Amino acid sequence: SLHDALPICQEGRIELANPCTEELFGYKNAELIGNMVEILIPESLHEKHIHHREGYFAKPKARHMGLGMELFAKKKNGTIFPVEISLGHYELAGEKLAVAFNTDITLRKVAENNLKKINENLEELIEERTLELTQALEREKNLNEMKSRFVSIASHEFRTPLSAILSSVSLIENYIQNGDIDRRKKHVQRIKSSVKMLTAILDDLLS
Questions:
Q1: Mapping DSSP to helix (H, G, I), strand (E, B) and coil, where does residue 63 land?
Q2: Longest dimension (CA), the chain
Q3: Does the pLDDT of residue 133 top 80, yes or no?
Q4: Model confidence over 66-125: pLDDT tens digits?
Q5: Distance between CA atoms of residues 140 and 136, nearest Å
Q6: What is the DSSP secondary-structure string of 87-152?
């Protein structure tokens, strides 16, 4: 950053200009002295600056200029750049003078903008990752619900033929004692059919 000290009289004329001022603004010393300080300010801000300058000389005190605002200066070649300005005041031979300490903060602004972009990108990345995590949790929840339904359905499907087999075996035992061959054959067939059903269910399950 470049710094300069620029004494200004109450009428707004530049009284002195150090080498740093020449380097910062691109003017020769002789081009600055006696000129209005507004030549170092963008034209669109001239009217406001004159008002603020007059207000400062009415109640001069050491302070930072434009607290909470972005300030800009203009080089001889027309380049506008961000600045930080501190104001001081003194009297010389009964004349009120203000001194403006100017700092070129272009590099600082570039760093701040880069940091802002990094933070914005980080916030976007966090939002994306949060959304992805939320979606993953939702998929996991749905998957767990599907697993629960699957186990419930599979359990029911297996229980039906197993119950038929169990009841048929019990009845066959009774029919053996009674010598009822036809009914024994009927339930044996029922057992075979249930076993086939179990096999088919198992095949579907494995698929």
A1: strand
A2: 140
A3: yes
A4: 677 889 999 999 999 999 998 998 888 778 899 998 889 999 999 999 999 999 999 999
A5: 6
A6: EEEEEETTEEEEEEEEEE-HHHHHHHHHHHHHHHHHHHHHHHHHHHHHHHHHHHHHHHHHHHHHHH
